[in-house]
Design a protein that fits this description.
Blueprint: H1 6-32, H2 41-56, H3 75-85, H4 91-118, H5 126-133, H6 135-147, H7 150-155, H8 162-181, H9 185-205, H10 212-223, H11 230-235, H12 239-248, H13 251-260, H14 262-280, H15 289-304, H16 309-320, H17 330-345, H18 358-376, H19 384-405, H20 408-412, H21 414-429, E1 434-436, H22 444-447, H23 458-463, E2 466-470, E3 480-481, E4 498-502, H24 503-509
Parallel strand pairs: 1-2
Antiparallel strand pairs: 2-4, 3-4
């Protein structure tokens, strides 16, 4: 590899500074922008699961706001519960594991990008060798590029296990790539451990997508490492030990969950969540669903990994036409194809299942930008990485601003209203018992350091000092009220208003349970 020069060192420092600004813009605008609380029912459920783990020690099958048990492994809830249990009940406390997972994913992308790009040093192409000499600053820019995308910016502050799964799968992908490329079996052992622990973490984060890892190992050995013997390459991963480890890690959760509620595990977790997802792609009721997914999944790339999907697709097209050679980036291409194929089988049901492909796509995109810039010669090579970082800064600021000011949460203001209402009534209710009546999935109880598992029974209503219910549930004035008002003094209909009542007044004036509000999906 070409030795660093003062110009490349300066390029690294400038790139790092711009990339840091991009990270600050992405995270800052997302966290400080409009809240998306109760914008998605699944997110409200996850928040309630964390509260149940924290306050009721329901570690394995926590319940949501209406009392239904989880359908996903609760790793994201285990990670968030200690802070919540310690008394930090802000939205940020619940979502901090997602932020950290997003930042760690960006860091892994940096390591993976540098290693892959450095391998172009032996290329016959002058442009590829130039890129190899700039691998360090380009890698920094690649980490910022992954983060500065609609998918990453959304999920790093979205309380679901998607970003955690992406982090673990990226770890496993990088570990497997290094493991298979390592000629020394002993030196491959640490990478094998990283691979299988990452895959097990993905299984414990969200479940079946962990199967991508052994499929990737087989595909990469067959397509890239067949010159040394694909079986020998696969054996470098120590799969007889690693594969059982990967499969055993989710049992840390599943076995105790079976003891808690075997019927839920059998019918809901293994039946509805696992088997139905496998069968969905070949549903007889919709035989063309997989065919449509062939087009739909690339649409997810263009929509949720903009603007980076475009240069990545250009690179892939040039590889297909043999104008470029993927060379060291073949592992990234194989991983993308594996994720794509998995989503075709599942009929492209959700864009979140494509997210594990985006880190590898970012590496290909940055390579394509650098390669195209060198072909067109608009700038000197040492300015390539700062250019990519600057694109990430602009893209991250733009996407972050959209989330902060133009998203549904920003338009309705409901998440901010919920948080403000929690702050308003928290000093009033103190440590008193509160009953939550008719609020549905609204994640107010977790913000108040409490958990609600469905409508309160008579005993809880009788022992409550305060009642939180929809505004107008009782013919009395509330102590506090959430919601915004129209010019005529009426409550806005796009914000479901909640009110705090004294329990004795509420019980004495109403005997009806207020109607549960509609889901805010």
């Amino acid at each position: 590899m070409t030795q660093a020069t003062p110009r490349t060192a300066a390029s690294f420092r400038l790139t790092a500074a711009i990339a840091l600004l991009a990270v600050v813009a992405c995270v800052g605008l997302r966290v400080l922008g409009a809240s998306d609380l109760h914008q998605n029912t699944d997110q409200s459920k996850t928040m309630a699961f964390t509260a149940d783990v924290a306050f009721n020690a329901e570690l394995f099958l926590p319940r949501d706001g209406i009392g239904e048990r989880t359908l996903k492994p609760p790793l994201i809830n285990w990670l968030g519960a200690p802070l919540v249990r310690a008394g930090w009940h802000d939205e940020l406390a619940y979502k901090l594991p997602c932020i950290l997972a997003g930042l760690l994913t960006a860091l892994i992308v940096v390591f993976a990008a540098r290693w892959l790009l450095e391998r172009f040093a032996d290329s016959s192409s002058d442009a590829a060798r130039t890129i190899a000499s700039l691998a360090a600053p380009l890698a920094i820019a690649t980490g910022a590029a992954w983060l500065a995308s609609p998918s990453a910016i959304k999920h790093l502050y979205f309380l679901r296990p998607d970003v955690l799964q992406t982090m673990f799968l990226t770890i496993a992908w990088y570990g497997a790539t290094r493991c298979l490329a390592e000629p020394n079996a002993k030196a491959a052992r640490p990478w094998a451990a990283i691979t299988w622990l990452g895959a097990g973490g993905a299984a414990l984060a969200k479940g079946p997508m962990a199967l991508l890892v052994p499929l990737y190992i087989i595909a990469l050995a067959l397509l890239v490492h067949r010159s040394v013997g694909w079986l020998r390459a696969i054996n470098r991963t120590h799969w007889p030990i690693g594969l059982p480890v990967m499969l055993a890690m989710p049992l840390i959760w599943l076995a105790p969950a079976w003891n808690v509620d075997p019927e839920h595990v059998r019918s809901s977790l293994l039946g509805r969540e696992l088997m139905e997802r496998v069968e969905r792609g070949s549903s007889e009721a919709d035989p063309f669903r997989m065919l449509r997914a062939v087009v739909r999944v690339p649409g997810f790339f263009l929509e949720r990994f903009a603007p980076w999907a475009i240069p990545a697709f250009i690179a892939i097209a040039l590889w297909i036409t043999r104008r470029w050679r993927p060379g060291p980036l073949a592992p990234a291409l194989v991983w993308i194809v594996i994720v794509y194929a998995m989503n075709i089988v599942s009929a492209g049901r959700s864009g979140s299942f494509v997210a594990p492909a985006y880190p590898a796509t970012a590496i290909i995109a940055v390579y394509a930008i650098a390669r195209l810039a060198l072909m067109l010669r608009p700038i000197t090579p040492t300015r390539l990485a700062p250019l990519v970082a600057a694109i990430a800064l602009v893209a991250g600021a733009g996407i972050g601003a959209r989330e902060a000011f133009l998203s549904r949460g920003a338009r309705t203001g409901y998440g901010n209203e919920l948080a403000a209402f929690a702050d308003t009534i928290r000093p009033t209710i103190a440590d008193d018992q509160v009953a939550f009546v008719g609020i549905g999935y609204a994640p107010l109880p977790p913000l108040l350091g409490r958990h609600r598992a469905g409508e309160p029974d008579e005993e809880r209503l009788a022992g409550a000092a305060w009642i939180v219910a929809p505004a107008g549930s009782a013919p009395i004035d509330p102590i506090a009220l959430s919601g915004d008002f129209n010019e005529d003094g009426s409550l806005r209909k796009d914000i479901f208003p909640l009110a705090l009542y004294r329990a004795e007044d509420f019980r004495s004036t109403t005997t009806l349970t207020p109607q549960t509000p509609p889901d805010n999906d």
